[in-house]
Amino acid sequence: MFGHVPLLANPTFADYLEDYGKGGLRAGDFGAIDNLARLYWFTVEFGLMKTADGLRIYGAGILSSPGETVFSLEDASPNRIEFDLKRVMKTLYRVDDYQQTYFVIESIEKLFKETYADFAPLYKELTADKQTFGLDEIAPGDTVITRGTQGYAKSKGKSAVAF
Ligand SMILES: [Fe+2]
Predict the structure, then answer these.
(1) Which of 19, 41, 59, 162 is the most buried (most CB within 10 A)?
(2) Which range of residues forms the domain containing residue 99?
(3) How far is ligand 1, taken at its centre, from the CA of residue 44, in Å?
(4) Is 162 contained in some domain?
């Protein structure tokens, strides 16, 4: 019942995911698949949302893990940073363990508004400068909600494969 199922039961969100597929083809034309994949990762899979009752999870990748469900909201280790489209598209992620950074968005409306856009100008910029931010990096201009201790990642003592 967790993972992608709850949000896919919402037709608007289901359409949104279908459009990601089309967006993927388009990103390929610009050599920007990595950038779009990072956006997908940090929203649909690992996104957090700010609510009146505190932080909540909407990312299915988090929700499919009981451990990360608690970790992403409550642990002191990860950074929690306000969502910024360009910043997210430049941020490396790991697929082998809990995330070291989560991005927090204000609302599902904001997610749709910011990501239902023509990314062509942005792709041109991103593929020209090729800048990336590391797994635990705080970037200039970030609005930091929680600066993580990274204690969990350090305790694992191995370097992550980052995408
Ligand atoms: Fe998934």
Answers:
(1) 59
(2) 5-156
(3) 8
(4) no
